[in-house]
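Figure S4 source data
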Amino acid sequence: MKKNNFRFVDHSEDPNVGLANEEIALLQKELNIQFPETYIYYLQNAGRRSNVFPVEHDIVKLKKYQKQLKEALNERNLLNTESLFCFQYNIEYEPLIGEDFETFYFFNLSDPKSPDLYAFGDFIINYDWRGYAKELTNKENFVDFINERTKKKFGSRLLKKIGNILLGILLAPFIVTVLIIVALQVLIEKIKNQ
């Protein structure tokens, strides 16, 4: 597991803002759980505001999400005996179906050293018949999940490096030409002034 190897992108118009350690400790105390180490690191760097994947830090909402998740999973007899922590709940309108889709993002804390990340919510299962169903998806690794979202939003680091190199290669002849012209102009001015 890649420990705390998040790809955070510093974006001046949409910066990440973390939570203070005291705020994180208060959340854990109020919820009576210990957050996974990787999640604490994420909160420290992007817990208040994330330019990729915002997470909830309002204690009242978090308590409500825990109850909603338990109820939704109990209806389907899923993960009944597991220790879970829901850190985000989304409702988004799905125009293809014409209904609101809800999604819970949560950790299974039953194995605190390596908690799995899960998503539980409405997913389209048949585009032709506009069918959808509730599905439980194991995303396995929170770091990989965040980094994939970062890649989708900001692009791959490798592609950006290659693009910058190609841009440099394409601009190099132009820059050299401009420098030669400027040097010749300076030389001509010096010759005229003598």
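Figure S5 source data
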Amino acid sequence: MKYYKLIYDFENSDEWINCIQYNSDHLDEYFILEGKKQENWKNPYFDYDSKDGRILSDFVGNIYGWPIVSLAGANLLKSIVTNTSIQLLPIMLRDKQNKGQEVECFIINILNLAEDAFDYDHSQYTFFELDDEKILSVTHYSLISNRISDFDIFRISENPVAVFVSELVKNKIEQTELTGFDFVEVKTY
């Protein structure tokens, strides 16, 4: 099985909506990295400016790099992965130019966190310090196959910012021609 890092398709994003401001006082921007089910979810919203982009892609760009999908993207993911793998959290996107224009999308809260799956021997990476904390910066990922083989969508404990998907998920997204998704193949050992 092949695996891919899921990324936003910047190459084709000129007319796509890009969320520029998150509005919620009950969450911080890092909650999505924890891989914990959210209880008592209050529908927050993102603002976008239709002067910068008017078309909603199925994988929505945003200032935090959170995995946000359209209704079509959410429905596809629900058909592929179990609800123990992800939690789809509703969020509204609002146009700053037209206050009445709102679109419902979903943050993908990824509940699978693969422990010790980063292959330090075959990856290209560096460490840097930020506020006395060592941060892993990865140029090319390699993952340990027996640590991820049970997952179709997941994050890794060593770098929970990155989202990975199986070949199954990638192929389904491409077959349904959902927009905004791009994939970088990662090596597994």
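The mean pLDDT is 92. The CA atoms of residues 45 and 92 lie 5 Å apart.
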